[in-house]
Amino acid sequence: MRTILLATANQDKAKELKAMLGADFEVLTMKDFGIDIDIIEDGLSYEANALIKVRALQPYVIGKDLVIMGDDSGLSVDCLNGAPGIYSARYAGDNASYTDNNKKLLKEMADVPEDQRGAAFITVIAMILADGQERCCEGLVRGKIAFDYCGAGGFGYDPLFIHEESGRCYGEMTKAEKNQLSHRAVAVEKAREILKQVL
Ligand code: ITT
Question: Which amino acid residue places its CA nearest to atom 15 of ligand 1?
Answer without folding.
Answer: 89
